[in-house]
Amino acid sequence: MKLILKVISGPLKGETFSFKEYKKISIGRSAKCYFSFPDDPKISRVHCLIELLPPSNVFVKDMGSRNGTYYAPSAVENEKLSFKKFDEKNLASGDFLRVGKTIVRVYFKGVKEADFNSKKETFSSWDKFKILGKIGEGNIGTVHLAEDQSSQKQVALKIAYPRVAPREEQIKSFLQKVKLCSELNHPNLVKYQNGGYCKEGYFYIPMEYIEGESLNSYLKKQSSPLSLTESKNIIEQILGGLEYLHYNRVIHRDLKSANVLLVKKNNKICVKLTDFGVAKKYENEGFSGLTLSADSMKEMDYLSPEELSDTENVTEQVDIYSIGVLIYNMLTLKGIYKENNKSMSLKIIAEEPVPIRERNAAIPERLGQIIMKCLQKEPKGRPQSVKVLKDYLLDELDEVVLL
Q: Which among 121, 94, 112 has a CA at the least distance from the CA of 164?
């Protein structure tokens, strides 16, 4: 089962591209786009994004291009194509996509339809765990308080039902990532255990149970931005956990306030990062389904531009960007972009963040510059490692907090 993109006009006419795995690709003039057309004046720098989810999902999103993105429904032989402009659309097998001078036809090969959304969470217990209650929901499933039947200890048990049927190699690949993360041990990381896949069609990941609240929940309760003193404590611990991850060659890739847990211990706040490495692995295997729609993207301002346009070559820089967003949120209680009708994906690619001192003039100028440097569109413009960022930030915060 695979998706096929056949180019029928334009510079790549006659070429065919096949995809068996989930993939996000971009089309534009930029050399960083998956399909780059630098000599086509009708194509914008990042013109559109395509999300491919074999066997039968092709979602296309225009990125505010100057000349638009167009589609035409499947046509009989010799019938003239009638193209229509769109902002975002699911394409069917046989449909045509036009971007500038290039026209591509979409085919689904070997498709076997199945209803994977019909699976219900009907479990209450089984040999390994006893479910005690639901804690919450995340990007890749629900989280339950459970009792490990072998150790009699409480754990947070993440249950994830893939939206497509996983192949055996995908299951092994995902569980290998979980195993890798379970070997990590740091005071600012939630401890994972080995996960598994049940024949009923879901993954389970046992994790250290944390009695606390997310940074996202905590910030929503605040009437004013966090003080520099309080922020410094949280930032220092986030950076500590992140530095450890990067040292072990793990990129978080889902660093946001909902994945930062706060626990009070002896009148101090202890920070724990969760979902590191796992959430994006789940998504990149295609288990999350389509993710580029306006509804899916509306709260994704922590994503760096390269997460959308160059997903094959992301580096630790995506986490540097995301922590910049986190610090911005703590010190302003606002998002990094202006509130307008533009889609979040378009903002991420093309709109500059609002300077942080316009949101909160009390932030020292040098600190504001460091935070905004994290939010540069180009990865090379950001601090080049967590250690470098840590040195800059903590030196500056030490100075202003002591004043």
A: 112
Q: Residue 173 is encoded by which pair of tokens?
A: 């690949």
Domains and CATH numbers, the chain: 2-109 (2.60.200.20), 129-208 (3.30.200.20), 213-402 (1.10.510.10)
- The 8-class DSSP code of residue 192 comes to B
**DSSP H helical segments within 248-312, as ranges?**
278-284, 294-297, 305-309
320 φ, ψ (degrees, to nearest 5): -60, -45
**Interval 21-58: pLDDT, tens:** 788 888 999 887 888 999 999 999 889 999 888 777 88
What is the model's pLDDT at position 401?
Answer: 62
Tokens of 95: 């449909």
Q: For residue 295, give every residue at least 6 positions away whose Cβ sits within 8 Å of its Cβ, in sequence order, or none.
A: none
Residue 372 in tokens = 């905004």
In the 8-state DSSP scheme, what is residue 125?
B
Structure tokens at 358: 């316009």
Residues in CB range of 326: below 8 A, 6 or more apart: 215, 238, 255, 256, 257, 260, 302
In DSSP notation, 33-96 reads SSEE-TT-TTS-TT-EEEEEETTTEEEEEE-S-SS-EEEE----TTPPP--EEESEEEEPTT-E
Q: Which residue has the tokens 């229509």?
A: 84
Task: Give the three-class secondary structure for 144.
Answer: strand
The tally of CA atoms less than 13 A away on the side-chain side of residue 193 is: 18
Kindly tell me if the per-residue pLDDT of 265 is higher than 90.
no
Question: How far is residue 375's CA from residue 384's CA, in Å, rounded to a whole number?
Answer: 12
- Which helix (H) or strand (E) element contains residue 8? strand 2-9
| Residue-by-residue DSSP string for 94-109 | T-EEEETTEEEEEEEE
DSSP 234-248: HHHHHHHHHHHHHHT
Residue 1 amino acid letter:
M
Q: What's the rounded Cα separation, in Å, for the pair 331 and 286?
A: 35
**In the numeric block, which tokens belong to residue 131?**
């479910």
- Can you give the pTM of this predicted structure? 0.82
